[in-house]
Design a protein that fits this description.
Order of helices and strands: HEHHEHHEHEHEEEH
CATH class: Alpha Beta
Strand order of the largest sheet: 2-1-3-4-5
Structural class: alpha/beta
Strand content: 15-25%
Helix content: 40-55%
Shape: globular
Distance between the termini: 44 Å
Number of domains: 1
């Protein structure tokens, strides 16, 4: 009976180890704003990774309207043990208007990246707020995977009261651009 229990534990551990965990941490650009979560780029990225034979789950931890301060505050709950890669899409809402005042914007970016790297998690950064954030992330050790909307044509971005957000086709483009960055972070050739 002991052997059966041990075999079950080994089988479960092997299955868990075989499934890499990727977390997409961000704001509405990650969440998909008003789209079903299945139409947002993290779900589409997971499908692309699986098409390449990788047993990878991609958790969408994007929250509409979130800031770097909010992401830092929920970092431990958003990024569970076993996560191998975090795609950190940040900061379009920081200091966007009087309702979004983040006083240590750059410090939050550095702290998020350093805390993730201290846990042995690879971090890929995609900025939706400008080149200074990209430089801050790269200096903290997170390679840049382009601007969040890089390569998305204007007709695939919709304007709303909450700002610009990609259409489902725009999310396809973002997922395809993220694919080689995440595969490198996982140690795989694209």
């Amino acid at each position: 009976m002991r052997w059966l229990g041990l075999a079950l534990v080994v089988a479960l551990f092997g299955a868990a180890a075989a499934k890499a965990q990727v977390v997409a941490l961000g704001d509405s650009s990650t969440r998909g704003y008003l789209l079903p979560i299945s139409d947002a780029w993290p779900a589409k990225l997971e499908a692309l990774l699986r098409q390449r034979g990788l047993n990878v789950s991609v958790a969408n931890e994007g929250i509409n309207g979130d800031t770097s301060e909010g992401m830092l505050g929920r970092l431990d709950s958003a990024v569970p043990e076993g996560t191998r890669v975090v795609i950190f899409g940040c900061c379009g809402n920081d200091n966007k208007d009087k309702n979004h005042k983040v006083f240590d914007h750059e410090g939050n970016i550095r702290t998020i990246i350093s805390r993730l790297r201290a846990r042995g998690i690879a971090v890929v950064f995609s900025s939706n707020s400008g080149p200074s954030d990209a430089a801050t992330a790269q200096n903290a050790g997170a390679p840049l995977c382009g601007g969040m909307y890089q390569g998305v044509p204007p007709e695939e971005l919709e304007d709303s009261k909450a700002g610009r957000h990609p259409t489902p086709k725009g999310h396809d483009i973002i997922a395809a651009r993220m694919l080689p960055c995440v595969m490198r972070a996982l140690g795989r050739k694209s």
